[in-house]
Amino acid sequence: MAFVLLPDGRSLDVPEGATAMDVAKLISPSLAKKAVAPLAKRPFAALAKKAVAAEVDGRLVDLTAPVPSGAKVRIVTWDDPEGLEVLRHTTAHVLAQALLRLYPGTKLAVGAATEDGFFYDVEPPTPLSAEDLPRIEEEMRRIVAEDLPIRRREVSREEAEAIFRERGETYKLELLRDIPEGETISVYEQGEFVDLCRGPHLPSTGRLKAFKLLSVSGAYFRGDPKNPMLTRIAGTAFPTEEELKRHLKRLEEMRERDHRKLGRELKYFTFSPEVGQGLPLWLPNGATVRRIVERYIVDKELERGYLHVYTPVLANTELYKISGHWDHYHENMYPPMVIDHEELVLRPMNCPHHMMIYKSETRSYRDLPLRIAELGMMFRYEASGALTGLHRVRGMTLNDAHIFVTPEQIEEEIRGVIELILEVYRDFGIKDYWFRLSLRDPADKESFVDNDAMWEIAEAHLRRALDSLGIPYREAVGEAAFYGPKLDVQVQTATGKDETLSTVQVDFYLPERFALEYVGPDGAPHRPVVIHRGVVGTMERFVAFLLEYTKGAMPLWLAPIQVAVLTLTDAEIPYAREVDDRLRRAGFRTKLDVRNEKLGYKIREAEVEKIPYILVVGKKEAETGTVAVRRRGRVDEGVHALDAFLERLKAEVAARGGS
Ligand code: ATP
Ligand code: ZN
Ligand code: ZN
What we know:
Blueprint: E1 2-5, E2 11-14, H1 20-26, H2 29-34, H3 44-50, E3 51-56, E4 59-61, E5 73-77, H4 81-102, E6 107-114, E7 117-123, H5 133-146, E8 150-155, H6 157-166, H7 170-178, E9 185-190, E10 193-196, E11 210-220, E12 229-238, H8 241-257, H9 259-265, E13 269-270, E14 281-282, H10 284-303, E15 307-308, E16 314-316, H11 317-323, H12 325-328, E17 337-339, E18 342-346, H13 351-358, E19 370-379, E20 395-405, H14 410-428, E21 434-439, H15 452-469, E22 473-477, E23 486-492, E24 498-507, H16 509-513, E25 518-519, E26 525-526, E27 529-538, H17 539-549, E28 563-567, H18 573-585, E29 590-593, H19 599-608, E30 613-617, H20 619-624, E31 626-631, E32 635-641, H21 642-655
Parallel strand pairs: 15-19, 21-22, 28-29, 28-30
Antiparallel strand pairs: 1-2, 3-4, 3-5, 6-7, 7-12, 8-9, 9-10, 11-12, 13-14, 16-18, 17-18, 19-20, 20-27, 21-23, 23-24, 24-27, 25-26, 30-31, 31-32
Helix pairs in contact: 4-5, 6-7, 9-17, 14-15
């Protein structure tokens, strides 16, 4: 007999040469219940059924792999994140097999599991489109029904080369060349299909149940635009039909919430190839929301002692050589243009301009904290594949500020910014967000300034400010700015991606580069510290976020049109004009609809435009100076005196909030 050690340290006797699957089956119900802590909650029958792989001495292996005596074994089920990944990776192989059966000559590149599904990048002999997906899926189901055993084979480099050369798999040969000398090379086979793969995989194709293909798109081989463009087929897979259904429903809801769709339907913004990629045109509705956000945040900042400035979107490249952007941020910048012997670039950040504002006069410690703010427009080169509606653009306006402080003032000032962020989020009704402490990757000397002491101090300040406010946060290595760590406030977009909305950054570097000084109480020059911060972030990303967060139904204070006034018949036109006039003079944004159309039609249109209030005026309302009120979402609120309604609107706007 041999034995293995279970996660809780107990040993289990197993026959010589037992596989991981045998171990899963041998873990008795009582043992699972009593002892094996991570397994305790699961019924025994489910364990063997749900098993997808095993961790043997810390290494993930196939269930069919023999387990050496004395090894530490953990059975990985599809409820574990690694287990779900194995399930999806196996689905990707079945997809590739189906493609080869349906479209002989297809070349396989890379296939993998992703956070919420899987994909395979291939080069098909003829172009594929979304219309081909049902047919491919059908073939995949056939492969599942065949229940083909999945076998791992470790092969020599020569053997692997022979396999893929014979199959004309040129991309696989290239991937094979990337595997370092001395590393184990394995292939996985199921039926006639073979793939170069590290594994692990499910023991047979019959184990797959719930999957769906979702999209066909373009993807460069290895993500490099210099390589050929391949076809990416993506889908998702779950252990059960029920989970798959739930996921697909969520995807559908996300599509409904996508700001690109809402922005088009509600006429917030548009793009045109004549203007350029990633350069949004704000239409009147979007511009109205943006203007409200801008006025709101500027007023808030003025209240808190910020000083607003205007600076140009261009600057001499020299400025960015001083700031270090030229060295560390070059690839995100537009190329320079030359005029009158000056070499100019579009600014990718506003900081250097603000440094020059600081330097425009002698500063004393009494002037600090000095909070220089601007709705600053900037331009960044973002890869065309990354551009996403207003979420990620190339020309954007940041609600930016640079706070110049003494070292003693850093923490207090960071706390002030965090409090401002929280206040703003409350006003906008934003509830789903999390704090991320973005740190450098110490190994990456290219993207981050090399000065360990500086990074550590800046990081400590951010942590202390967060801790003193009792705010939980997650850490992210490699997400810092090149000059220092950041505290980012993250939100989720409708496509399920995390994006940064607000950001606070501590910077000892730029003050050094610009040789900033203030005169201390001792009469001697000292170096200030800079806090960079964006509260609503860029107008582009913030409005995109608001669209998705509210599903386009902006709260009253933000809605591009707040009240629609509709007539029942032509007889009420004069009174309707009067109502509309009163509203507009009281500062509300209105739409007057006196068209000779059916009332139901006019109401529907206003509902589609997501106007918060619809007022209907008929004969009775005209005679009594009242309005019939309908709240967005088809709630009939009855007849009200116009004056009373106006007061109510004012109160609702003053309260702000989400929708
Ligand atoms: P990201 O990591 O999202 O690319 P970043 O870390 O480069 O952003 P910062 O320099 O901190 O961004 O920019 C400040 C703010 O500008 C971010 O918090 C974010 O709200 C916004 N922002 C950054 N890039 C874009 C973009 N391409 N389109 C719209 N908004 C952006
Ligand atoms: Zn694989
Ligand atoms: Zn800055």
